[in-house]
Amino acid sequence: MGCGSSMDTQTNPVVTEVSSEMQPRQNGASGNVVEQYVRLDEQISKLEGTCPGPRMATAEAWVEHIQSKHEAMLGLEGMGVAPMREREWETEEALPLPAYTMGRQGDPIVANTPTKDLAQLAYNLGVIGDARKASMHEDFFANLSESALYLLSIRYYGELLEHTKVRLKTLVESYAELNELYVRQDGIIAYISGGTYMTRLEERIDEQLETARDTRDKLGSALEQWRICGLLLRAAANSSTQALKQWRQLGRIIDPKQKLQWALDCRSLLHASTISLEAAQLALPHVELKYMSHRQVLAVKHCNTYLITDIANKARYEHTSRVFTSYESNMSKTCTWLYETFNSTLRPDYDKAEETVCRLAKTLRDHREEVFSTVRK
């Protein structure tokens, strides 16, 4: 009867129950049921404007996508222990890394990277302040970093999955609320009209409204994709800015332990940025992100892998600084570009579609109010 959106509600009003509920209220107050219809329709129009159904469908698909990727990363064999090269170390100062223990919720891979062990090992080997030692051990620390960053990737995707589930829960609740309103409104309409259109004008407006809703809902689904991508790009840009500040400050730190800790923090921030960027591209796969190239991301990842042993080498430190600076600048530009593109394309289209839906919904509401009032008298 035109009360639902283009998304299936999967519920059917029980007319007899609604009728029995309404009957006592109609004694001496014939206008109450019509007023209830108007109030419900206004509530529905407002809640529909947030597109909970289409957004929910997009969020569900996103949860499945991220969960699949996260599970694939956890399922790879051989990642329980850092995949470093098998070779003996010719130094008494080298500390063996402990085996990874069971992590949160019993995961076989710990959620946190073994930064304390890595930091102690790097300090004992003297790779922070001695370029010769750093060069001698760079392959070892590169492999160790790759392992640690892989574990960090699992952690970040796990956190992203949890945040996405929270978003989905909110949309599911909104959609359930909207369905409940649909049921109540359909019951009122069925109680008054018997479930049939009362005028040809009512039928024609309702058909136009359903078409407009379908267009708005499709745009609403796309809106959620752009929202996810935008939030992830903003997170990537913020992390890259923080990482660059850390890296620049690093050059002025003298204490080896403090310098090492800042380097590890910088590495984590940069990795968080590249993971957020990767996820943003997954969220909006058909849109090519301007200013950010695959080659540049690979350069950042390479520098991040060798970050610990490059600190002592002035030339490498300066090269890494240039890579990080360029990445941070382009990351910021990419984020700005996405929002500007969204505001100049999808946002106006959605606003126009929503305006059409609101106009038609009000026209239908006013017409039904007039017809229903006449019938109730």
TrEMBL record:
It comes from the Eukaryota. The lineage of its organism: Eukaryota, Metazoa, Ecdysozoa, Arthropoda, Hexapoda. It comes from Drosophila erecta. GO terms for biological process: positive regulation of apoptotic process; positive regulation of autophagy. This is Uncharacterized protein. GO terms for cellular component: Bcl-2 family protein complex; cilium.
